[in-house]
Amino acid sequence: VMFEEGIYKLWYGADSMGGCACYSTSDDGVNWYRYSGNPVLMKTSGSWDKSGAGGQHTIIKDGDMYYMYYKGYSDKEPGWTFYGMAESKDGIEWEKLGKVIAPDMEMGETSTFRNLYAFKIDRYFCIMHTMVEYLNLSLLTSLDGRNWDKHGMVFIHGQTPGGYDVKWTTSPCILVDGDIVKMWYEG
Question: What is the predicted pLDDT for the residue at 53?
Answer without folding.
Answer: 81
